[in-house]
Amino acid sequence: MTLEGTLAENLWQQNQDLAIASLHSPFVQGIGDGSLASDKFAYYVGQDAFFLEAFARAYSIAAAKAPDWQGFGVFYQLAGGVLQELNLHQSYAVQWGIDWRSVEPGTATRHYTDFLLATAWSHEVGVTAVAMLPCMRLYAFLGHQLALNGIPTHAYTDWINTYSSAEFEPLTVQLATLANQYATPSPLVSSTYRYAMQCELDFFQAAWDGV
Q1: How confident is the model at residue 61 (pLDDT cuts 50, 70, 90)?
Q2: Cβ contacts of residue 193 below 8 Å, gap of 6+?
Q3: Looking at the domain assignment, is residue 133 inside a domain?
Q4: Residue 92 needs a FRET pair 20 to 30 A away by CA distance; which of 5, 14, 57, 123 works?
Q5: Cα–Cα distance for residue pair 43/23, rounded to 1 Å
Q6: Rounded-to-integer distance, Cα 125 and Cα 134, Å
Q7: Is residue 151 classed as helix, strand or coil in its secondary structure?
Q8: Distance between CA atoms of 40 and 30, rounded to whole angstroms?
Q9: How much is the CA Rg of the chain, to the nearest whole Å?
Q10: Each residue of 132-142: pLDDT tens digit?
Q11: Cβ atoms 206, 23 nearer than 8 A
Q12: CB of 30 within 8 A of CB of 207?
């Protein structure tokens, strides 16, 4: 990514401890080497589908509040990207026998989705972009790290393929560009980003614990 020195890049660098903690979490490492128990991944798929619906709604709210047409268009396109990601989860649901439409969100999932939607409704679009950016940037980072030595063939190959792909990273850059355009450095921006990063780590831990 060519975002050095920008707000988005500075926030990412300031929260490397949480990014590394997510990478080394037992859940992500289990995806990486294929050892993750299938019931843990099935739980994750259901929870992530619930999360992604809220993520798409937050994008839509941000689009409606965007101060210019260009911003509206990009937020709208990003919401469409989330819907495509949900299609991947539908294929996972078939593969793993999950009825993800009937999933009840766990505590970590609720904390994250409630935070995203409250931020989207109550703050201007720059803060919303900052709240959503950790998910995109972290997943691109995790996918890249897990694929560093080649993508292995096991039950979670599609997950690694998706988040290490050349198609996913531009979505991350688009959102980072919006954050750089609309947000300015402040304690609120810093705490919003870090809270979202912590929510990501908690989400992986909850998937590991199945709660």
Answers
A1: very high
A2: 11, 14, 15, 130, 131, 133, 134
A3: yes
A4: 57
A5: 19
A6: 15
A7: coil
A8: 10
A9: 16
A10: 999 999 999 99
A11: no
A12: no
Which residue matches tokens 């790290």? 145
Q: For residue 112, give both structure tokens.
A: 């994250």
Is 126 in contact with 8 (CB distance < 8 Å)? no
Q: Which two tokens stand for residue 1?
A: 């990514």
- Supply the CATH number for residue 133's domain: 1.20.910.10
Type and span of the H or E element at 133 = helix 125-146
- Residue 136 falls inside a structural domain: yes
Q: Answer whether residue 128 is part of any domain.
A: yes
Greatest C-alpha distance within the chain? 47
Q: With CA atoms as reference, report the closest residue to 129 among 173, 85, 176.
A: 176
Count: domains in the chain: 1
Q: Identify whether the C-beta of residue 78 lies closer than 8 Å to the C-beta of residue 174.
A: yes
- Provide the percentage of residues in the chain whose pLDDT is more than 70: 96
Indicate the DSSP class of residue 153: -
Quick: pLDDT tens for 137-191: 999 999 999 999 899 899 999 899 989 999 888 989 999 999 999 999 999 999 9
117 and 65 in contact (C-beta within 8 Å)? Answer: no
> Would you say residue 106 has pLDDT above 60?
yes
Domain membership flag for residue 53: yes
Question: Model-level pTM?
Answer: 0.92
